[in-house]
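SEQUENCE WITH STRUCTURE:
===
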Amino acid sequence: MMKLSAVALLGGVLVVAGCSAAPAPVPPVASSAPPEVPRVTQPLDVAKYERAPCSLLTQAQAAEVFNAVRNRKIAGNVAPVCTWNNSENSSLAIGLLPGQGGLATVYQNRSSSGYFEPAPSVDGYPAVFTNVLDNRSDGGCQIAVGVRADEAFTSSVILFKQSPAYDDPCAVALKAATAVVATLEAGS
């Protein structure tokens, strides 16, 4: 019944608009061209980390970035992901995306229902805050960082309200991404 009412209402609006004496102004058409994908100028060798994502952060780095007390490797859609948890069970997940087209694919697949915002470069590597769901006001944030033309990694956080960084989860995701880049640079 609700669908029928919505269709009837929409039909009524279309009929009324069609009978208008003056044409309605046409809103400007937004450009559908995607923003230019930033290039990775100094590709990193990340192969040894693709199957061992928990080695992307040392325990000391994870504790400094996130107060992590434990981690575990889980299966991801593309490659394994490492999740760290703090004592309140907030989580930080880090994973590489091998063979997925790097940031070009991230730019191409951005969601209109979530968020997609340029992020500061991470030690010279291009980055973007992006996710299909905008949960930043609820303690969640994800950043994708390009480390090769054809590969990126993500740093995602889900913080509980008792977390001191709950109101700025993107700062935690960025801080973790910065530590990952430092590990990758040292290991390359």
Observations:
- Confidence is low (pLDDT under 50) at residues 1-33.
- The chain is about 30% helix and 30% strand.
- Residues 130 and 152 are 13 Å apart (CA to CA).
